[in-house]
Write a structure and sequence with these properties.
Layout: H1 3-17, H2 24-31, H3 35-47, E1 52-55, E2 61-64, H4 77-89, H5 96-108, H6 112-122, H7 135-147, E3 149-156, E4 162-175, E5 178-185, E6 190-195, E7 199-208
Antiparallel strand pairs: 1-2, 3-4, 3-7, 4-5, 5-6
Length: 230
């Protein structure tokens, strides 16, 4: 069994064991590997996302925190390539790096035959991706949005004037092929749309946002929709 397959199977075994957990020795026996290898796998599993708990002493073992994992997911090769293409085509989108990492996790646990078909199909899909903002700037904007904290940005407007703004992030929006940070600008005392690729520096502050609602932005156009799908 390949390591990626073993990690997926290990995750599922821990999920099914619930609060009882499994000892490292029992897991090693199940997968016919050494205890040392299982402990390395458990460390890798914990580092990849699912919260792995450990309980020392008699009756102890390892398990997954409640609601920490998904049931097995089965994708066709076309579905896998659709996910890859969508993320590749939107490399400048907020959280695209996290989306890429998530898709890689999914693809890594597909069965080898589906992986091979997906790889062959993916070679037939080319993407001329738009340039992404600097990783540091984008990370700061994403963190500020997720944590709802004021972000300090250096912004260059259409007239080439550069200003330092403190902004309460309210939403990311994409229109006409460009991404915008929409937020309450403390300098102007109003909602402003900041073109993402004109923000060349961003720092998350410790100041919480004051609770401006996305309803204040107004009614979205008919062809606009949120990314939520559930």
């Amino acid at each position: 069994m390949k390591r990626a397959e073993r990690l997926h199977a290990l995750s599922e075994m821990l999920r099914r064991s619930g609060s009882r957990g499994r000892t490292a020795g029992r897991l090693a026996a199940e997968f016919e590997v050494s205890v040392r290898t299982i402990k390395r796998d458990l460390a890798a599993l914990a580092g990849s996302g699912p919260p792995v708990w450990s309980r020392p002493g008699p009756g102890g073992g390892y398990g997954l925190a409640a609601h920490a994992s998904l049931p097995p997911v089965s994708l066709s090769s076309a579905q896998a390539v659709a996910l890859l293409a969508a993320v590749a085509a939107a490399s400048d989108a907020p959280y695209s790096d996290l989306a890429t990492a998530a898709i890689r996790k999914i693809v890594d646990v597909l069965d080898p035959q589906t992986q091979a078909r997906a790889e062959a199909l993916a070679r037939r899909v080319w993407v001329d991706a738009p340039p992404a903002p600097s990783r540091a700037t984008r990370s700061a904007l994403e963190q500020a949005m997720a944590d709802q904290r004021v972000v300090r940005i250096r912004y260059t407007a259409n007239d080439a004037a550069t200003t330092i703004r403190e902004v309460e992030p309210m939403m990311f929006a994409s229109t006409a092929g460009r991404w915008y940070l929409v937020g309450w600008c403390r300098l102007r005392g109003a909602i402003r749309w900041f073109t993402a690729d004109r923000i060349d520096r961003a720092t998350v502050t410790a100041t919480p946002c004051q609770g401006h609602s996305i309803d204040e932005i107004g009614t979205p156009p008919p062809n606009a929709r949120p990314t939520i799908v559930f």
